[in-house]
Amino acid sequence: MNPSLRHEGISSESALALHVSVSETAVCLKILDMTSAFAAYIGLPADTETKGLRLPDIFTNDALFVEEVIDYIIKIRDDPAAVHCDARDGDDHIIFTLQYLQIIKGWAIATLRYNPVLDILIIYFSPAEDRSIATNARHLMDLKQDLWLSRFIDQGGYWEMDCVKNTIFVSRSLARTLYLGEDAVIVSVDRFLDTIHSQDRPAVIRALNNVENEYAAVKSRAVLPDGQLIFFSSYGIPEYDENGAVVKIIGRTLNITERERAFNKLQISEKRFRGIVENASDVFVIISPDRHIVYVSPNIRLIAGYDPADVTGRRYVSFVPDAREQRRLRREFIRSLREHRHTQTQCRIRCADGAEKWCILGIAPVSSEPGEATEAIVTIHDISEQMRSDDKLRYMGSHDALTGVWNRFMFEEEMMRIGQDHAVGIGLVIADVNGLKLINDAFGHQKGDEILIKAAGLIAGVFVGDVSLKETLKIRNVETATHMQRMENMVIAMGKKLGLPIGEFDRLVLLASMHDIGKVAIPDHVINKPGDLTGEEWEIMKTHSDMGCRIAMTSQELSGIANEIACHHERWDGGGYPNGYKGFEIPLLSRIISVVDAYDVMTHTRIYKDSMSHEAAIIELKSCAGTQFDPDIVALFTDVFGALSQEKMLAFIYSDPDENKESFRHYAVIGNP
Hints:
28 helices; 20% strand; alpha+beta; elongated
């Protein structure tokens, strides 16, 4: 005997134990356990996991029985003393015998034993061996004739159709509901069908004609004299003569009007909700308990470019490109479900075209039962334009509009920071542009502005924090100035195509020139070796990514790209170094640099290899898409550069990067002219 049934004193007869959960709007009956005899009787395989299933999952052939059990439980909870029952066992148990139900292998009589204190319901099943319900009914009437008769006539919504006389006996309660009389009546089948809505009569007639299959069930509407509609759920069971012909149909009709109205209201509410969701500017996402997306509103196409069908079924964090942001989002999700409250967070999401957008995510848990959070609704609000505007305002507030160098406000902010940090070894350089007034007077203010812009560029080029590091790379023969120039030009074009915010664009350009800064720590005999590296030398070479990250963390100018420097040799399939990240765990900027750097290495001669053509390099990148490289970034690179000839590509990558950067800033501020 199963442990959860043993404490109720149940023997090896067919029985089913259920846990009763009641909310303000619904009753849920979840299976705790069942005897092996019952499992075998309904045809379940021996290894079937039944715990946690609901009652309708077992009684798929008799929804009316489920409704009757739930209706009985509701009545008990409302007023236990007023509920009609067969017996009471002390203060805890209420015993009630239902009539007939159809399960997988035949008919059965069900007896309920309910403990409202523990909220445990036990159902016993006694199989009905005779195929004629009348035999079983008479057997029951012999035991409890008065009780059965009162239920049949007064309470149950029962009816009996005489197929020979073409009449129907209608119980008192059903006759009153249909306005056929104040007492139980016998009417013709045609008269009874007149009460059925004309659109539903064909279905009712078909169900009665097919009753020889031993079961007939149908939903229908009755039209009352005042035009009001009543919704019914009915089933009927045949009685046969000695020749096997159906002579009677005994049935029961349950008034489900309130339930249908509630369902219709729910459908209307759902349509309204769906209309609001599908026309809202935000994206609505429903997350299942196993953290997968089960629904996404159609406007995901507008915000991120995805088709909803391609999003459904994927894990919700798979659209967040940064691994740290993924971990933070998981923590917010768990906190929302655990504390059962709405939370909000901000992160980047990856769009279908590979671009990233800043979004605010609102997470709200949804409960199907009291105290149990099973799903979550996530709203996604695109704030990319706001972020671009904020970047623009921050830039305008801290930089001179003409020259692009820091303005007086930033100078004072930096002086305050230096004072608070008690920094030492700080120098101040003051420069003057001689003859500026003469130039303005002689050639106009436009020419004077050009002189100021060039002067500011020279000063910024000398004193910017990463210049000494760049020069160290060149002196060590690690990277040439032209390699940095080519890298910058290519990432500028890709950043423009992606529509990156100015802040992200600046980080990408800086990363293009400084991604290999860690190579300054690699010995000369390794970094400048003309032939293949040994295994030991290769392990030394691979440390440059992690070393570059450490160097960058010590620099105020480079600390913002330290993580991207560490990850620029990670592979899409997880086979890279130093951390073995794969897919969207690798930062977007690192994935871009990986493709651009590989192209530049392939198309230019190194001490250890010859160069290949532009066209051959494009083919090689495509062949490595999905393994070494992010396939979307390869597609982006091909889209930007693939159609160019060898000559045009060379002309572009050797152009002035500063001019290209200014072109990007103009594009980012005012849009594509």
